[in-house]
Amino acid sequence: MNMAILMIFVLSVVTLMHYRGRRDLRYPPLLVSGLWLGVLGFYYVSPIPVDAISSRTSLIFLVAVLSFGGGAQIAFVLNANRLPLIKRRIRRPGPSLFHRRLRLFLLIASVCLLPVVYAKANALAEQSGFDDWLVGLRVELASPGSAGYGLLGNASMLSYFTTFIYAIEHGDKLKEKLQFYVSVVVSVAYASLSTGRTAFFLVLVALMGIAAMQGRLSSKKLLLGTTGFLACFAVFGVILSKGGTVDASWTDNFDSLEESVAQYTVGAIPAFDQIVRADAPLEYGRNTWLDILNLVRRLTGAPTVSPIHEEVDVPFSINVYTALHPPFKDFGIMGVIVAFAVIGAASTYFYLRAAAGEKLHVFYYSLSLPPLLFMTFSDQYFAPMLSWLKYAAAGYLYFRNSRWIPSESLQDGAAHRMNPTLGR
Q1: Is 184 within a domain?
Q2: pLDDT at position 348, please?
Q3: Phi and psi for 103 in degrees, rounded to 5?
Q4: Domain that residue 132 falls in
Q5: What digits encode the pLDDT tens for the residues 38-61?
Q6: Which of 212, 237, 298, 365 is 20 to 30 Å from the Cα of 281, by its Cα?
């Protein structure tokens, strides 16, 4: 109990300091310390039975929060000359004609690939042998050694990327708004075919992050996004029997979902504690770089290693261990310090540049939010590392392309200077 009080006190002070320092709810260190404060506070007064954690585990959590904040300070030092730009947003030209055409091409490609991905999903579901289509697809996608969608898995990333760039370069014309809404619907369809709730979380949180960084996130949009994710969580929980069943009554399903939410909120905390207590030999990168190592294994024909971990009882069964799991299991406490200092520096760097109005970093900042908000639950930093690298490369190629291609507004300005009679 003394450690619980100490943790709540220290995290409260850290959160207050971050808030007084920036007074901006978009500030990554504030989000991290506030998240850990809320989740650990809920854990200490948990409404469901849950295993106690050691003082050592509590201190490791605190070290991760402080390391993230320390990394943020490094980002401030490196961006000292850009800080004035945060208080006066940069006015930049609108998207070029090339970007508009490219976005439309990416949208059409996403739509055309959707039936192909659905056909693959149908084949996987039939291959599983389950009568329930969605359950069969889920089992087949999660099976060790399963190739899943293979290269077609990139189609969902293409759709999500298209939705994000439409949101960042939002237009006021009806045609562009309709294209954006179509891209959202297509992305939701791809997320459904993933059979997981993480994909919905990625899309919704990234879109809200974009809106927040561009000053367009109203309380109505925030409520709509939160409600949308909770609805997805409930529907998939019932269909996949992970918090209810289709045959149960509404009352029974509500009670099951309520317990499931509580388990997902606090379960990873004692699960990570079991890793700490085990004091196993360090694995030196096998977990942190698993996604890249699996790529090498696929290229060399070696069997891949499943990213899905074994379940532990805390006392309920759970197989997620917070985002600290890979660096701690590979490199111990020093791995946690270095990893989250780097993540804190990168996240804050994206925040600073995005606040200055740079579209590329609005994109990067919005993508940094889903793994950040998942930090107390599971690792979404290291396990999907290849996906983050693909998004980073795609964003850089798309937004930095505008350096060499003049915007439509600049082209029009040049035309007017050459022929003043235009537009009269």
Answers
A1: yes
A2: 96
A3: -60, -45
A4: 97-252
A5: 999 999 999 999 999 999 999 999
A6: 298
